[in-house]
Amino acid sequence: MAPPIRDSVGDAVGDTPVVRLRKSGASEKIELLAKLEFNNPGGSIKDRVARRILSRLAREQKLKDSTVLVVPSSGNLVLSLALQVPRYVPHGRVIGLVPERTSEDRIRLLKSLGVDIVRTPVEAHADSPESKFSLAKKITADLPDAILINEYADIDNVRTHAEETAEEILEQTEGKLDILVVGAETGGTISGLAKTLKAKIPGLKVIGVEPEHSSIRDNVTRSGVWRVEDMGSNFTPSILDQSLVDKWLQIPDQVSYSTARLLIKHEGLLCGPSSGGVVAAALHYADEALEVASSDVSKLRVLTILNDTARNYTSTLMSDDWLLEHDLMDATLARAAAYHRHEKYRAASVEDLQLPAAVTIPPTATVGYAMDLMMTREFSQLPVIHPTNRKLMGYISQTTLTNLLEEGQAHDDDQVSKWMYSFVKKQPGLATPSKYVTITPLTPLAELAQFFEKHSFAVVTDEDRRWCLGVATKYDLMTFLNRRQSSGRAF
Ligand code: PMP
Fold it and tell me: Is the CB of residue 74 below 6 angstroms from any atom belonging to ligand 1?
């Protein structure tokens, strides 16, 4: 049944799906499930906590027009509060105290929601004056009508999951579950879920996941930092109920990021890096549990909670360059990236594309002639060549000319020189301007492929850019790869 019309985005929070993971490498004796918390309107599980905290504040009549919410959080709760606060306070302000590791993507989202952002050092211990907690306390004390929202100590963070998320899980799994694997930062999710689910499902094992160097499990001060956002903490939060956690696993950043990328590619799950860590931990723990289980165990059912969306991380998790720069790709992922960047074009260069001789026009040709030529030969663009010295001057594009003709700016009998894009001239004694990339027959196809990440076509010239030798498009590159593949050359 389709959900009914909701009055606000806060009412659309929750009821997230559970899906079976089929390509994650789990053994046949493991049924690996994932609850997709990134399906919430704000892209994370924290939408649930924000809803509960806001409705409590409203009930207690603490929200006024001038209210400022001061939120020390790794980012998701700030986002969720900012999304939902207009329902209660039309011009409510949110100040987020966000660690330096929080990705630029999420900061942009927060800014678009009008959140004031204060960055805090990741290493700062909770008690130190520069920590997000100390700063938040100070800001709250200084501002009239400010309310501090501390999810690390707020019991509603636990109740949300004990009463809402856990009930959904019970319904969705029909109470059949062997292992629950949850990432932790404030400890709210794991404590709430474990409280309800352990009471209802005898024998359920609850596994907590934190990054390597985090101190949630033992409160031991460590100097290490980690990159996975929203998971891990350098102290044990007060709302965490350790007695409900059967085992803690520490996951290296490289494993979390690489697993998240596999989940995105192979399962189509647009989840963030902490979800990668949780699934990696689940596979590890379930394999171990199977080894020690008696042979009559037919199958272990494991539920993971995937907390937030990959869209929070387009400049980090989704960027091969960023992952390589920070050594966050495991060998399998690095091999796949190298294959796509270089090896599939191995040893081939532009001349292997066997481009037809370039069809060019002089700058004095008319727009009408150029349009006819492009239509009949099915070209999207044509290089413009100097009529006497045959040098490449620029190019015209069919789309641009069509628009200009439709707008009545260009006319059929105009000379194309009036509407061509001219290439930035190479100045004697100066390096080629960075805007112009010279593509010659000897340019490796791997380089051409990179060029096509930003451009739709390439004019192929000699080294000095004197002669136009052809025009290449991504289509030529794809045809070449198909040809090579079907001629049976392994690569
Ligand atoms: N992963 C992500 C993406 C999160 O946003 C959070 C919450 N900060 C967690 C894991 C950990 O959840 P909790 O705070 O309930 O321990």
Answer: yes
